[in-house]
Every structure is written in C-alpha cells, then in structure tokens.
Amino acid sequence: MPVSLHRRSRRFTAVGVFAVLALAGVLRFWALGRPGSLVFDEIYYVRDAITQLAHGFPTVWPDDDTLMGLPFTDEPSFAVHPPLGKWVIALGLAVFGDGTGWGWRAGGALVGVATVGLTMVLAWRVSRSTAVSLIAGLVLAVDGVHVVLSRVGLLDGVLTFFVVAGALCMWRDHEWVVDRRAFSRLGPPVLWARPWLIAAAALFGAAAAVKWSGLYPLAAFLLLTAARDTIVRVVAAREARRTLGLTVDLSRHRHASTAVALSRSALQAVATGLIALPTALVVYVTSWAGWICTAGGWGRADGPWPLALWQYHVDMFAWHSTLSAPHPYQAHPLTWPLGLRPTAMYRETLETGLTSVVSPLPNLIVTWGGVAALALLAWWVCRALIHPARIVRHRQLAGAGAYAAAFVVVGYLSGWLPWVLTLSRSAVFQFYAVVLTPFSAIALALVIGVICRRRGTRDEVSGRRIAVGIFLAGAVLLAVLFFPVWAGVPVPEWFWRWHLWLPGWA
Q1: Which of 12, 31, 99, 107 ranks highest by number of CB atoms within 10 Å?
Q2: What is the separation, in whole angstroms, between the first and last Cα of the chain?
C-alpha cells in the first residue's frame, strides 16, 4: 500500500473511532443527572456503593426512601451480589459526591463508553476489517438496552464491560496459539505458557465479582477453547501424516496419530482449566478485600475470614435460588433476544404535565438485525463443522471465518442460555440481556461486512452498500427518536405513548 494511502486509511480509522466513541459518550453522559432520585434497583446498589466506600462493606439505610438525604448506619447489610460492581459505582461517587445522579451514574457511563471501544477492538481482531469494527461500535453505541444500562447505577453494564474484555483476551489467546503454531505436528504434550488466557481468566473473575453470572462466559469460552485446541491438534496430526507420507499402513497411522492428538487435547483441556480457574478465583476473592480487611461486615465475625466468606456465599446462594416473588416487569429469557418485555425503571408525571421516563426500550433495527445475524453465523458454524480444518486455518479467520463466527455465537449464548435453563427464579428481567448486546453488535457487523464484500457488478456492489448505509442511518435515527425515553427527558404523554410499539412495552 502506498504511504499516502496508508496514512489516509489511518486517518479515516482514527476519525471513525473518535466519531463512534463521541456518539456513545453523548448518548451516555448527556443529562446523566436526570432524574435526581434513585431509579429501580439503584436503591440497592447505589446505597451499597456509598456505604461500601465509607466502611469497606455495605451497611443499612434507615428506610427505602428514593432520595439520598438520609444518613446511613454502621449496621452491616446483607448484600446479595459481590462488591466489585459497587466499587465501580463508588468511583463516580468519589469524584462527584452523592448529591447528584452524576455521582452514582458516572462510573457506569464511563464503563459503557469503554465497552463500545472494546467491542470495536474485538470486532477488528475477529475480522481484521476497519469497516466491521466501526459498524460494531456504532451499532452498540445506539443500542437502547446498552445506552440505558450505562446511564443507571446498576451492575449489569459493569458486568458487560468485564465480559467483553475477557472475551477479547480469549480471542488474543486464540491468535497467540495459532500464530505460533503451538500445536503444529501434534505440538508439545501440554502448553502452559498462555499469558492471554491468564488475562482472560482474571477479567472473567472480575466479571463474577460483579455478578455471579460472569462465570457463565468463562465456562463457555473454556469449553470453546478446549474444542478448538482439539481440532487444531487433530488437523495438525493429519497434515503431519500427509507431509511425512505416512501412507503405507494408513489405518494404523491414522488411529495412532489421532489417538495421540486426542489424548494430548484432553491433557491440554485439564491444563487450561488449571491455568484459568485458580486465576479467576484469586481475582474474585481479592474483590472482597474491603470485607476481609475490616471487622464489621455481614457475617465477618463468624470465625476465620475464609470460613466466614464461604458461609456468606452459602447464604447468598440460598437467597438467589429461592427468589421467586413475582414482578410486573419480569421477562422470560426466551423473550430477551427480541426485547419483548423491557423493564420500565422510572416514570413520573411532572407538575408541568410532562412525563419523564427511563425505560430500556430496544432499538429494533439493532436488536432484531442482531438476532438475524446471529442465526446466520450459527448456520455458518454448523456448515463449517463438516470440514473442521476450515475452523482453525489462520487464513480463514481473516474474513470472519468459522471460528470467529463460533466465538461470537458462543459469547452471545453464554449470557443467555444459562438463564433459559434456570428454572428456580422467576424474577428475571429484560435488562439482564445487556451482556448480549456487544456480541449481537459484532455479529451484525460481520454479516454486513460479508454483504459488502460479496462480488458482483459495480451496480450490485453499490446497491448493497447504499442499502447498508440506509440500514445504519435508520438505526441512528431510531436512537435519536428514542433517546428521550431512555434518558428521562420530560416529554408529552402522547410522545411517550407513541414509543410503545409492542404490546409488552406498555
């Protein structure tokens, strides 16, 4: 590539990244202090963050008033989620104080913008396409669920950040293994030196330290990694036989080499778990340092801290496993991908007659387009499984190959399927699906990238690109139209009602 063209390309990339992050920042920080009272479950997490910042552990508030003027007590509170997400909320409180919504929402908004940036990086790594990267970032920037969960002091937006960061490191581990041909010609019996795997495990441990559901993607990506390692070794064994000309007794050599590859893959899977799981555990336990290093936390005095912490977790698990109280906005996980039952987090009729609403209504172009793209990627993966070698060849990855598609689909399913299979809790909500939004955005960007790269006449290519431009412009336009009801902007009642497009949105 000529130097001038390369510089122009880098300039275009820099401007595109800045524009996407600026849009994400505006949608997440504009009028962040509105409303000035706690909304939905902020009443739990923000108060935990304030008292945790003061004591190192959550303490009890005198009542459930949604205003912030009441003093908290020194009595320990039974918090049912780990502390890391509340420490992120506390960062904003440390800067802006607890007298304004900026204080308890700034940390989440900053993490939300950072998630858009990480999503662009991950999209670029799986596709090596600047256009795919920018489209993924743009789509996530205007996703209604992600915008709202970045604008409220809840834990799920923070969870999403750590999940995407962990997924990015998992992909870097994949690149590290493939680029170094670590498993070529059967490779070493066990590969222990995997720095990106350690980083990924640490980040997924941090995700679990926000909400326990952060363990789901760790388990899913470890299984995917073990499957990938197995395929790499088996394919390498076959290529080694072909290179060495092992054709005299083909059946004997085939079984022997495949058996060796499978046995080493099993050992590698064990080694991968021994690398990742203790790392995640250490990070998770470290997140409890405030509770461990003080004497007044809930259950802290019940024996040595390891036993007390274990008992605390037994009590937390019992609470979550028996939570079955009905809620007017509970949404079955099967409805999450299409956004059929959003959670109305706040609604107030003001003295002016206007209505202020905060509701994570989905951007349907983004949400439904993402589901269609994920279905297409899943079909692509199933087709590629007929020829496993295609999954691992590096050249195939350069255009969003089969493993890239599998990686994105697994990322999405890891945040959704466990909830579908959870029968012990009925009180689950649509906004839990925010952890799915980065993978949905990448899937949509990958499919759009394939559409734009398909060969055809000049008119056909131009027509497809115009259609993609209209599609993305429509997504941005919907974000502009829905932003008032994502951000609590006072609007006429009819304007709010006009946004209730589906029966479950009312």
Answers
A1: 107
A2: 54
